[in-house]
Design brief:
10 helices, 27% strand, single chain, 2 domains, ten-stranded mixed sheet
Length: 331
């Protein structure tokens, strides 16, 4: 894929999907994991045969991962911050996403240097440094697994951590080669608000003159998961099953969507109030931004920016940041 000593890759390990972005392009891999069952139902006359999800086997056991994994095994839905410490399903999702990335773009021909995006909750508080070290510890090194029976391995030589929100910021500021866009570089020296609406959280960050403004930076568990919980009042489905229905536009959101939108805007108003009026631009990114694209941007009176591919913004921005750092290191 590259002649560089190490291949650069941005990873947004979201609760809804793993997003990977490198020189060839990006990939979204649904963050569903399930332990494999022991029985398989054969196709039967009159019914279609379901296509099995990707089967991953590693040192932690056997898992189905990716889209529709919850239809084939016992769902594993660990959505708290402990997953970033390298839980078994998190490792299976990493291996599954890398498998699909290589199937799309070709085998990695060198070790990886990655920047992984983490939610604010992981990067704040007394355990922040320990959390980052835990993430680096389980990601760094040689990973081996089988995917649908095929042996695979990859070496991750270097791991850096950044906030998911920072990934969205650099996606806006940098071009595909990791260089500052001339018409946007000035915003880096001004004041920029960033909102990322992911599956698990709504993350806010404000950067002024290249420094984080702490009082305007926070995270809340009000992501798309909350919308699905409102729909799933009787708890008839796993969140993964509902996510697949949402992506297929099979969910009736007429009642739940306005309630969830008010919760999201409440998080923003509580943290920012009217201060957004002084920001040069308000960036709105993440998968949840797609659901609110017809309403949320208009609350910021022309200051909002919604990228063409908001789902990939964080991973793409982290990759572009790695290009910028590589260029600076080479000077």
């Amino acid at each position: 894929m590259s002649d560089n000593p190490e291949l650069l890759l941005g990873i947004d390990a979201g609760n809804g999907a793993f997003k990977l972005y490198g020189a060839p392009g990006g990939l979204e891999f649904i963050s569903q994991a399930a332990t494999q069952g022991t029985q398989k139902v054969l196709s039967t006359l009159g019914l279609r045969k379901s296509k099995a999800p990707l089967a991953i086997q590693n040192e932690n056991g056997s898992f189905y991962v990716g889209a529709s994994a919850h239809d084939f095994g016992r769902p594993v839905e660990n959505l708290d911050v402990d997953r970033f410490n390298g839980t078994p399903e998190m490792k299976a999702l990493l291996h599954g996403s890398i498998t699909r990335y290589q199937q799309r773009y070709g085998k990695f021909e060198a070790p990886l240097s990655i920047i992984v995006g983490l939610p604010n909750e992981v990067l704040t508080g007394d355990l922040a440094e320990q959390n980052v070290e835990n993430v680096k510890r389980w990601l760094r090194g040689t990973h081996t697994w089988t995917a649908d029976g095929e042996p695979l391995s990859v070496e991750i030589a270097e791991v850096k951590a950044a906030s998911q929100v920072a990934g969205g910021l650099f996606d806006y500021l940098l071009d595909a080669e990791g260089r500052f866009l001339p018409d946007r570089k000035g915003a880096f020296n001004g004041e920029v608000g960033v909102i990322t609406i992911g599956f698990g959280t709504v993350e806010l960050m404000v950067v002024r003159n290249r420094e984080i403004v702490q009082r305007f930076t926070s995270g809340a568990a009000s992501g798309v998961r909350r919308l699905l919980e409102l729909v799933n009042g009787q708890r008839l489905y796993s969140l993964g099953e509902l996510d697949m229905q949402l992506r297929a536009r099979q969910l009736d959101l007429r009642e739940a969507l306005p309630i969830w939108e008010r919760e999201v805007t409440g998080v923003i108003e509580k943290q920012w109030g009217a201060a957004w009026k002084r920001f040069d631009v308000v960036l709105i990114m993440g998968g949840g931004a797609i659901l609110l694209k017809d309403s949320l941007p208009f609350r910021f009176n022309g200051r909002a920016y919604l990228p063409a591919e908001p789902v990939q913004s964080i991973a793409r921005g982290l990759y572009r940041l790695s290009l910028l750092q590589q260029a600076r290191k080479g000077k």
